[in-house]
Amino acid sequence: MNNRPRQHPLFLGIDTGGTYTDAVLWSEEHGPKGTVAAKAKALTTRHDLAEGISGAVDAVLEKARVDPADIKLVSMSTTLATNALVEGQGGRVALVMVGFAEADLTRDGLKTALGTDPLVLCEGGHDVHGNARSLDLSALETALPELTKSVSGFAVCAYFATRNPAHEIAARDLIREMTGLPVTASHELSSKLGGPRRALTTLLNARLISMIDRLVAATESFLEARGIKAPLMVVRGDGALVSAEFARQRPIETILSGPAASLVGARHMTGLDNAVVSDIGGTTTDVAVLDHGRPRLDPEGATVGGFRTMVEAVAMRTFGLGGDSEVSLEDGGLAPKIMLGPRRLVPLALAGMVHGEAVTGELERQLRAPNPGRMDGRFAVRTGVPDRLAAGLTLPEAKLYEAITSVPLPIDRVLLTSNAQSATLNRLVSRGLVHVIGFTPSDAAHVLGRQANWDEAAARLGAELFARKRDGRGQPIAATPEALAERVLVALTRLSAEVILETAFAEDGLDGAATVAHALVQRAVDGHEGIARLSVALDRPVIGLGASAPLHYAGLPPLVGNECVVPEDTDVANALGAVVGQVRVTAEARVSQPKEGLFRVSVGELLRDFTDEDAAMALAEAEARAIVAARAREAGSDAAEIELVTDINVSTVEGQRMFIEAHLVATASGRPRIAV
User: Fold this and answer.
1) Rounded CA separation 481/460 (Å)
2) Among 136, 127, 212, 111, which residue's Cα sits nearest to residue 161?
3) Which of 237, 264, 374, 389 has its CA 20 to 30 A from that of 415?
4) Phi-psi region at 674: left, alpha or beta (left = phi > 0; alpha = psi -120 to 50)
């Protein structure tokens, strides 16, 4: 270890992804672009996140041979929240809606998102000016004793809570007093109108709290054990940094955290101002656009896993396509296509490395069977999450969960009655309680010798089993494991091109998915040469990110009509982006006129009336500045600069100015505080 005092402090970046946890040490030693002193990877260990974090950080500290005390800031990005929403995972929570009707569940996908989680409807809420209706929380008070036994948290959304949060606060305080469980109130997350979508955002936030809490706790515990006494920051979905405690309360804001960090890292590494950034991981591919050196933000809120939230984030499109995507066959057809995703599986090569004979022995047994089985090459294994997260299982779910252990079991021996139990297994997977192990593109890469970090023998056995599947003519779909593996990797590159083009078309105002699916675009991507020649090309290069980008994006340029730049440190772009960002938080205030001559200020949890417009505006501005300054400190910056944007809506009636409403947005930004 080098114990000489350092002139420039070290910054530690960590990215906890679905498959790998990355770590990078960076300093400003050679100017603003800085220097990557060391980088390392370790497998993400979902049952105990501290293992993966310690593996990556210990490796990077060993490589750099530095004193941990020299690290003055730790910043972390994560795809865990994004992956959880894409895969439909998260804790079981109760949604409490005050002033809404059950019919409101049909809007904005709220009913789909809620699924089988409990719902409590209460009378109350406010009107658009913040005037209260009669509040009745008796239904909530009656339901709480039973709900406490079966949920991990609560989400509360009241009608027009953004104009007056009093009824949300009353429900929140009652839940905390009677249960002690985490509660998310919608006004704490968004000041935008649109109750059902705000309720959806709050519901998803509540589901993610335990997951992000475990991640932060694991990281803090590790840092303390290693003597790293530095502030811990987390990347938000818009690329800004916030303190770990801030992220614990608002984990929904970490959706697209990893991709947002990757955009910051991509711009930092390449210097390109205009590009399409495509980040391929184990679970997802995330695609976004850089314009004039800045990522485009989604003004309507981030869409992840099919749900449109109210979280301000980069205009990132997330697709269930990655190195660990489930490989399956298209239903029907004489020559079925290879299908990938959207579900992530644990690769057979990884399971074989960890569990050995328990996996390879069963694969060999299945290969000895004279005919291929529908469940060949599939295993089920517990994820290792705490037992309390298994609360609320039905009897069939509990029985199947009890049968599945921490050692992988072949699904053809776990599911004795296929259809009903398959649905039960899928529900356990969606709850994050069970992993399915199966054949993935990562296995295909092992078969072809293009990846060699896991167990090649298990991957090959899985490829042999998959190649035995029959097409519509009753023939094996591939002659050899290598032929199958090549088809899988070609399919992944082709699908990567399609999701990149889909994003580009969508940014141009078209229906991205429909445009890419059009026969003419498909012919252009295929390079079909006919009497009418067609081509499609991006106007800017692609920046390929992710450890597997050099492999999967090598064949990308002819498919997208432009070059693909893969930076040297592409494998740790997220971790690098995590340490070069800034803290940025906002606060909003509104001044409305419920009746002529009365000006109502609504900001944070404050509601106050004035008879003078200037006095109301002055208070709104002062409160917005005070709130955003406090949020900046809470988010981890002591030297934030504040900007205020005011939008006043007025009309003129018979030559007289008529005030309608004012909207004020205060933004504080600055570098995070570092250890002294």
Assistant:
1) 7
2) 127
3) 389
4) beta
**Interval 613-653: pLDDT, tens:** 999 999 999 999 999 999 999 888 888 899 999 999 988 87
391-408, pLDDT tens digit by residue? 888 999 999 999 999 999
CB 376 within 8 A of CB 410: no
Our CA angle for 65, 70, 75, nearest 5°, is 100
pLDDT beyond 60 at 2: no
Could you report the per-residue pLDDT of 426-444, keeping only the tens digit for each? Answer: 889 988 899 999 999 999 9
For residues 483-511, b (16+ Cβ closer than 10 Å) or e, as one string? ebbebbbebbbbbbbbbbbbbbbbbeeee
Residue 10's H or E segment, with its range, is strand 10-16
SS in 3 state form for 257-286? Answer: HHHHHHHHHHHHHHCCCCEEEEEECCCCEE
pLDDT exceeds 80 at position 291 = yes
Please name which of 312, 409, 400 lies closest in space to residue 351, comparing C-alpha atoms.
Answer: 409
Q: At 643, which helix (H) or strand (E)? A: strand 641-653
Q: CA 293: distance to chain centroid?
A: 23
Is residue 512 within 8 Å of 502, Cβ to Cβ? yes
Give the up-direction half-sphere exposure of residue 370: CA atoms within 13 A in the CB hemisphere: 0
**Whole-number Å distance between alpha carbons of 249 and 243:** 10
Can the peptide bond before residue 342 be classed as cis, meaning omega within 30 degrees of 0? yes
How much is the pLDDT for 441?
Answer: 97
Residue 644's closest CA among 633, 628, 659, 661?
Answer: 628
Segments in 476-635 forming alpha helices (H): 481-507, 512-517, 519-526, 549-552, 557-560, 573-579, 613-635
Q: How many helices (H) and strands (E) does the chain have?
A: 22, 31
* Angle between the N-to-C axes of helices 49-64 and 195-225, in degrees from 0 to 180, rounded to the nearest 10: 50
Phi, psi dihedrals of residue 14, rounded to the nearest 5°: -130, 135
DSSP summary character for residue 645: E
pLDDT exceeds cutoff 80 at 305: no
Residue 552's alpha-carbon distances to 321, 490, 549, 653, in angstroms, are 12, 8, 5, 63
Q: What is the pLDDT of residues 100-153, one digit of tens each?
A: 988 888 888 888 888 888 999 999 999 888 888 999 999 999 999 999 988 888
Which residues on adjacent β-strands are paired with residue 95? 119, 155
Q: Cβ distance 440 to 454 under 8 Å?
A: no
- Measured at the CA of 96, the angle between CA 90 and CA 101, to 5 degrees, comes to 120
Smallest CA-to-CA distance from 378 within 330, 434, 321, 334 is with: 434
Partners of 381 in beta bridges: 435
Q: Which residues contact 30 (CB under 8 A, 6 or more apart)?
A: none
Reduced to 3 states (helix: H, G, I; strand: E, B; else coil), residue 124 is: coil
Helix (H, G, I), strand (E, B) or coil at 12: strand
| pLDDT tens column, 46-90 | 667 778 888 889 999 999 888 888 898 999 888 777 777 766 667
- Provide CB contacts within 8 A for 216, sequence distance 6+: 232, 234, 244, 247, 248
Q: Is the pLDDT of residue 554 over 90?
A: yes
Query: How is 568-606 classified by DSSP, letter by letter?
Result: TTGGGHHHHHHHS--EEEEEEEEEEEEETTEEEEEETTE
Residue 638 burial (10 A CB sphere; 0-12, 13-18, 19+): exposed
CA-to-CA separations, 342 to 87, 522, 655, in angstroms, rounded? 8, 21, 59
